[in-house]
Design a protein that fits this description.
42% strand, Jelly Rolls, 1% helix
Length: 305
C-alpha cells in the first residue's frame, strides 16, 4: 500500500481471548535465509548495523538508534513468528506497519523487547506496545536463552505471544493512540546498540481488509488532478509530486467519507495545506483545510484545522 492513497473500507473483528501458539506452519514463508541479509535493508544507519552470525541476525553494538532493519516489502495482516536471544541487558523491538518515512513508533507500532521481568507490567515492559499498552504479563527468558515470539495482526485485532504465552490481545481501534496508525507497512528489527539476535523469521499473510485508491504514485496519475485556482506549478517527478507557486491542485473525482494518507516534504518556512470538502473553488469557496505551515509561533501551525 502506498500512503498517497484513499481508504475505501475496512472490516472489524471481534476481540476474543488469545489462544496458545499453534504448531501449524502451513502457508508460512521464511524471510531470513540464515546466511545473509538478502531481502532486508538497513535504514537510518550504517550497513554494518546488522550482520549475520551462526544463523542469526545480530545487532552490532556500535550501531545505535535510529538504525533498524527493514523487510523487503510491506505487510497488512499477517502471522509473524521467530525467535530472539536474550543475555544480560538487552533492549530492542519488533516494528509492525513501519512507514517509508517518519518515526516507526508514531506511524506504526513497536513490540518492545526488554530483558527485565517486571512484576507489574508497564508500557515500557517486555511485550508492551511501546510506549502505549503494557503487556498482559511479562514473559522473557533472559539468562542466555532463545525466546519465541508470535505476532498476529488482523486489523483491528492484534495478538502477541512470547514463549507460547499471550502477552497482548487487543482491539487496536479501541486505543485512541493507536487507532489511526498505518494499516500496512514494513516489518522491522530495532537497534539500540545491544547485541540481540534474531532467527527463524517467517510470515504468513492473512487476507486484506482494506481497498485503497492511489491518487498519485506515478507521473501518469497526474491526469487524475486539475488546477482549481491560481497558477501553481506541479511537476510529476517519478513517485513525487512537486509543487511551487501560488494556487491549488484538486482531484477530478469528488469524495464523501474517506481516509487520506500521504507523505509531505516541505521547504523551509513553507506555507500550504490540504483542502477537503471544497466547492471546487479551492480557498475561494467553502472548504476545510489542514494547515501545513512550518513557522515557529505561527497562529495556524501544521495540523491546524
Amino acid at each position: 500500500m502506498n500512503r498517497r492513497s484513499f481508504l475505501g473500507g475496512a472490516a472489524a473483528a471481534p476481540l476474543l481471548w488469545a489462544a496458545p501458539q499453534e504448531a501449524d506452519e502451513t502457508g508460512f514463508t521464511s524471510i531470513f535465509d540464515g546466511k545473509s541479509l538478502d531481502g532486508w535493508s538497513v535504514q537510518d544507519g550504517p550497513e554494518a548495523a546488522f550482520y549475520v552470525n551462526e544463523g542469526a541476525i545480530v545487532v552490532h553494538e556500535s550501531a545505535g538508534y535510529p538504525a533498524w532493519l527493514r523487510s523487503g516489502r510491506r505487510y497488512e495482516n499477517f502471522d509473524f513468528r521467530g525467535e530472539f536471544f536474550v543475555k544480560g541487558w538487552i533492549n530492542s523491538g519488533i516494528y509492525l506497519h513501519a512507514p517509508d518515512h517518519g518515526r516507526n513508533i508514531w506511524c506504526g507500532m513497536k513490540i518492545n523487547i526488554f530483558h527485565q521481568v517486571d512484576a507489574t507490567p508497564a508500557p515500557e515492559s517486555m511485550g508492551s506496545i511501546f510506549p502505549v499498552v503494557p503487556p498482559l504479563k511479562v514473559n522473557v527468558k533472559n539468562k542466555g536463552e532463545w525466546n519465541t515470539f508470535r505476532i498476529v495482526m488482523d486489523w483491528p485485532r492484534l495478538r502477541v505471544w512470547t514463549n507460547d504465552e499471550a502477552v497482548q490481545d487487543l482491539d487496536v481501534e479501541a486505543v485512541p493512540e493507536l487507532r489511526h496508525r498505518l494499516r500496512s507497512g514494513y516489518l522491522g528489527l530495532e537497534s539500540l546498540s545491544y547485541p540481540i539476535r534474531f532467527r527463524n523469521l517467517r510470515v504468513h499473510e492473512l487476507p486484506s481488509k482494506v481497498a485503497w485508491t492511489p491518487l498519485y504514485e506515478t507521473p501518469a496519475d497526474l491526469d487524475k488532478w486539475h488546477i482549481s485556482d491560481g497558477k501553481p506549478i506541479f511537476q510529476a517527478l517519478g513517485g513525487v509530486l512537486h509543487s511551487d507557486g501560488l494556487g491549488n491542485l484538486a482531484t477530478n473525482e469528488k469524495y464523501r467519507d474517506f481516509e487520506l494518507q500521504m507523505y509531505v516534504r516541505h521547504a523551509w518556512h513553507h506555507n500550504g495545506g490540504v483542502l477537503f470538502r471544497t466547492e471546487g473553488k479551492a480557498s475561494r469557496g467553502r472548504h476545510y483545510e489542514i494547515q501545513l505551515h512550518d513557522v515557529e509561533g505561527a497562529h495556524y501551525p501544521t495540523g491546524s484545522l
